[in-house]
Amino acid sequence: MTQAQPVKVVMNDRGGLLGQRAEEIRVLAQTGQRVELRGQCLSACTLYLKLPNACVAPDAVLGFHGPSWYGRPLPVDRFEAFSNLMARHYREPLRSWFMNTARYRTSSYYQLSGRQLIAMGYSPC
Questions:
Q1: How distant is the alpha carbon of residue 71 from its chain centre?
Q2: What DSSP state is assigned to residue 33?
Q3: Residue 108 near residue 64, CB atoms below 8 Å
Q4: Are 85 and 99 in contact (CB under 8 A)?
Q5: What is the distance between the alpha carbons of residues 23 and 116, in angstroms, rounded to a whole number?
């Protein structure tokens, strides 16, 4: 008999480094651990949306922005590469919105509610 893994509940996550978060997402995908986005989830935190077992609470707030180096612009080739890396963690229509709109904002966030993400097809908690 296998023991169920604890649920990872995200309540106040300001993001962090893209590479580190992408690696965490890769490990979580392998283990199948459930992730519940229940509070504020900003920047790299939004990459949890890639997980098939992630859910979003209707009152959660997710903040999206494009890649930068601590708020400073990246060279064009790195901006494109990191934008595409981030976009691969989102499904449509969020992916297109990110690539067409959100990635160009690097000094603040576009905020989407859990309700908006659920309307885009993400699982509710």
A1: 18
A2: -
A3: no
A4: no
A5: 27
Tell me the pLDDT tens digit for each residue of 13-38. Answer: 999 888 899 999 999 999 999 999 99
Q: Which residues pair with 40 in a beta bridge?
A: 12, 61
> How many CB atoms lie under 10 A from the CB of residue 73?
13
Q: Beta 54-56 vs 35-42: how paired, if at all?
A: parallel
Q: Across-strand partners of 56? A: 37, 124
Burial class of residue 115, CB neighbours in 10 A (0-12, 13-18, 19+): middle
* Surface-to-core class of residue 99, CB atoms within 10 Å of its CB (0-12 exposed, 13-18 middle, 19+ buried): middle
- The answer, yes or no, to whether residue 125 has pLDDT greater than 90, is yes
